[in-house]
From TrEMBL:
A Pfam short name: LpxD
SUPFAM superfamilies in UniProt: Trimeric LpxA-like enzymes
This protein's record includes keyword Acyltransferase: yes
Organism: Christiangramia echinicola
Keyword terms, alphabetized: Acyltransferase, Lipid A biosynthesis, Lipid biosynthesis, Lipid metabolism, Repeat, Transferase
Cellular component aspect of the GO annotation: membrane
GO biological process terms held by the UniProt record: lipid A biosynthetic process
PANTHER family: UDP-3-O-ACYLGLUCOSAMINE N-ACYLTRANSFERASE (PTHR43378), UDP-3-O-ACYLGLUCOSAMINE N-ACYLTRANSFERASE 1, MITOCHONDRIAL-RELATED (PTHR43378:SF2)
Name of the protein in its database record: UDP-3-O-[3-hydroxymyristoyl] glucosamine N-acyltransferase
GO molecular-function term, one example from the UniProt record: N-acyltransferase activity
UDP-3-O-[3-hydroxymyristoyl] glucosamine N-acyltransferase non-repeat region domain mapped to chain residues: 27-91
InterPro entries, per database record: Hexapep (IPR001451), LpxD (IPR007691), Trimer_LpxA-like_sf (IPR011004), UDP_GlcNAc_AcTrfase_non-rep (IPR020573)
Amino acid sequence: MRFPRKYSLKEIAELIDCNYKGESEFPVLGMNEIHVVTPGDIVFVDHPKYYEKALQSAATVILINKEVEWPVGKALLVSDDPFRDFNKLTRHFNPFKGSVKAVSDSAEIGEGTYIQPNVVLGNDVRIGKNCLIHANVNIGDNCIIGDNVVIHAGTVLGGDAFYYKKRPEGFDKLLSGGRVVVENNVEIGSNCSIDRGVTGDTIIGEGSKLDNLIQIGHDTVIGKKCLIASQVGIAGCVIVEDDVTIWGQVGIRSDITIATGTVLMAQCGVSKDTTPNTTYWGTPFGEVRTKLKEYAAIKKLPEIVKNLK
């Protein structure tokens, strides 16, 4: 999330009422999660396990719950609760704006685009040319839809990230201030849910086709010309590169990369990065020919055990 202007370290510290380490006029340009930070961004970290990763990231301002040495050219915001204060910044720079009508006055709809009944378009939504948005689709604030996009009935774009911190009193939600960006020539089936980024974008790449009943988590990037079948669940912060095929009921954990040309057969449980142009099957998943050989060997076990007696 980029701020509307350049802020100083001192200004940000005053917004969230915390101490800072560094020059008071140190520039602050935005805020992001660690996987998408760029110079000028704030990143938050509240666990010693991840201190070094945050300090060595591209972020130049680290919102942290301990005074530590920081690399040259960076600064600290020292808070007793970085998670809480990151939420404060989200509320300040991207506050919730309620809608007063189904299609916001600030929504932009391109020439030749048809909006079916009961569609909800949030604030500052932009939809390109020659799109078809079917009934009961909900497109949240700030989402961007390209040209020649079809979105079928009941789909939700821009729901909040499923991201919580467990506290003694219950679960504390990390607020979402990002967007969903759907590029040109995409088709999205019925009753899909594509969550917006926490601070960045969830992206559906050009020419990709999504079946019905698909869940895509926050900040995930789907590449170009991907094919995703029904009931697939993709967690947050996943990179799906170009020309990937994902068959029904595949589950993909967070923070991994599905390489170009990967094929994931139905019901794969994907727990790590894949190799380009490779087909996988099973849970735990593996290269399909290897998995088939393993299953064939397992079928022989009763006979082997019998002969050992």
